Amino acid sequence: MTKKVCVIGGGVAGLAVAIGLHRQGIAVEVVEKDANWSVYHVGIIVQSNFVRALDQLGIGKEAVAAGYPYNGVRFMTPAGDLIAQIPAESQVDGLPGDLGLTRPALHQVLTTRVKELGIPVKLGVTFESFTDTGDGVDVTFSDGTSGSYDLLIGCDGNYSAVRKVLWPEAAPQYTGQAVWRYNVPKPAGLEWSDIYLGVDNGFNGKSGYCPLTPTEMYIFAVIEEPGKPRFPTETLADEMKKRLAGYGGIMGEAAKHVTDPNLVVYRPLEACIMPDPWYQSRVVLIGDAAHSATPHLGQGAAMAVEDAVVLAEELGKSQPVDMALKAFMARRFERAKLVGTSSIMLGEWEMHPEQAGNPVEVTERVRQALAEPV
Ligand SMILES: Cc1cc2nc3c(=O)[nH]c(=O)nc-3n(C[C@H](O)[C@H](O)[C@H](O)COP(=O)(O)OP(=O)(O)OC[C@H]3O[C@@H](n4cnc5c(N)ncnc54)[C@H](O)[C@@H]3O)c2cc1C
């Protein structure tokens, strides 16, 4: 039986699992190293399995109200002509399938519920060390306090310090691509997220956008960036515009809004998919700490919330912690691996078009697999 849990990291996975555990009657404490508990300002694309998982935590309606439901995803030529479309399919009565959200809006939904439930969150704090005692884990924190728990959950993202302690050899690897993102006004009447397959402008990649609010959308360019370059901040808008040159349709118009280098979010893509199991004794990883993929399928947040729902469910059952962790892995590993390997493969295809298969087929197949209950 699980009575008391320590969560390291107050992001998507950490807050979702804290809410799930609280709903199961398990005492939970969260430590978050960012004293400001902030997230950056761009958007996040999520699908019906994310909405369903948040609904299972009792905050599906709140997330939908904070975001912008749209019709689905379309694939376009560089000129803006339709190649194929995958309409959104809802998994929850009364709630939509595909949704665009700003990261701050999602953070607000999660933090509001955590505060309403009275879950303790220590900000500006991390762990200093932990000792697995076999039937529990003793943790010392950077604020000088300590505690004993039945389980420690590492929800500390792609560069997880918890993972580094237990699997020091595991580290995110650069995939060869980076994402450029920027928020722009949404044209009236645009109700789809569109992906424009590569244009001949000297850069190798694709671009797209996703509605976030009735008046705002975010645009992205996923580009091969050999050597993982860094750019001076003042050049970011010009660099992003170069990568968006030559697109037509809505993308071509949207690119004109990229003017402020300080509002460009540039991020080299680094992935780390851990093998089964994601736990050792009384310490388990979930979310990006366990399986950070590239954003090609827009599934990172959904995988984090699904992990949280399943782990909380299994820990809430009358079974020993090790049985709960085994059951958790059995329900989560293949699903997260499918997202991770498919996302990385799509990126490989973008970098090596001569070896590419059909990205629409892969996107559709993974969506169908993820529509199945966890
Ligand atoms: C460029 C890009 C675009 C993406 N787009 C999408 C998208 O459109 N849709 C989608 O679903 N997903 C997307 N993702 C993935 C998504 O952001 C992640 O999968 C998701 O945020 C994972 O949640 P998490 O809680 O595991 O990690 P995070 O959200 O990274 O949260 C980790 C938290 O832990 C804290 N932390 C870190 N280290 C410590 C420590 N030592 N002690 C205490 N706290 C710590 C951090 O401050 C943070 O609050 C994208 C990712 C990238 C890189």
UniProtKB/TrEMBL annotation:
Q: Which UniProt keywords apply?
A: Monooxygenase, Oxidoreductase
Molecular-function GO terms, alphabetical: FAD binding; monooxygenase activity
Taxonomically, the superkingdom here is Bacteria
Q: Which Pfam families match?
A: FAD_binding_3
The FAD-binding domain covers 4-317
- NCBIfam families in the record, alphabetically? PRK06847.1
Name of the molecule in the record: 2-polyprenyl-6-methoxyphenol hydroxylase
What organism does the UniProt record list as the source? Alteraurantiacibacter buctensis
Q: What is the lineage of its organism?
A: Bacteria, Pseudomonadati, Pseudomonadota, Alphaproteobacteria, Sphingomonadales
